[in-house]
Every structure is written in C-alpha cells, then in structure tokens.
Amino acid sequence: MKMNPEVDAYIAAYPPKVRALMKTIRATVHKALPDGEEKISYGLVGYFRDGAVAYFSAFKSHIGFFPPTDDPKLRKATAKFANAKGNLKFPLNALPPYDIISKLVTARAAANRKKAEAKAKAEKKSAKKAVKKKPAKKAAKKKASKKK
Length: 148
Hints:
The chain is α+β, with helices and mostly antiparallel strands. The chain has 4 helices and 5 strands, in the order ααββββαβα. The protein has a single domain, classed as Aspartate Aminotransferase, domain 1 (Alpha-Beta Complex), CATH 3.90.1150.200.
C-alpha cells in the first residue's frame, strides 16, 4: 500500500506521543492490508479494499478505531475496548493491541472480499439472464409484426 501524503500531514498534526501511536497503528494496518488504499475520509484515516475496511483517529483521551467486528472471537477480544456506539477506544496512556488491530483489518478485508465476490457473481448471473431474455423478446415482436 502506498503511503498517502495527506495521512502523513494528518498524523504530523498530533503531539509526539499520540503521533507515535498513530504511526504504529498505521504500520500495523499497512502490514495487514498490503493491497489496500489509504486516504482521509470523514475526517479520519481510512483504509479501503472492496469497500471500507477501517478508520482511526486520535481524540482527547483515546484513539478511536472503526468499525468493530462481527466475528464473535474478535468481539470477545475487543470487549474491553468497546464503546457504547460500537467503535473501539484505545486509551492514550497504554499501547493499543496491535495484534488485535491486525486481526480486525484482516477479518474486515476478508468480509469485504466475500461481499464483492457475491455481488460480482449476482451481477454476472443477472447479465446472463438479461442476454437470454432479449432475443426471445425480439423474436416475439417479429412474429407479431408478421401477423399484421
């Protein structure tokens, strides 16, 4: 994944301690999602592959990580960081769980890939049906015009 200069500037605006945590989270996401795209989205650092994978940003007393996971094992592992709104809050006075962040990104990217493949398959199937129906309609129109 390419380093985005907008993200460099975004992270550089934070105090040194927070900046160091954000840089390590960024490196963790890059390692877990090497073929993703990094950009600023919704005022947060965002990562994308087949859709949104993850976002993060620093706040007054924590780093927020979005979105959470549907995976029961990862949900259990992230329970102590879960916020009422569903996002994860990593306190600034402790190191974030980089191994869990990596697993969250990998799981979310896999879920996005699965959805994208299912959508592509459905679109391909729909296109095949449309192709099959068109000739039949044309033939029916020709028969109707010949009868007149």
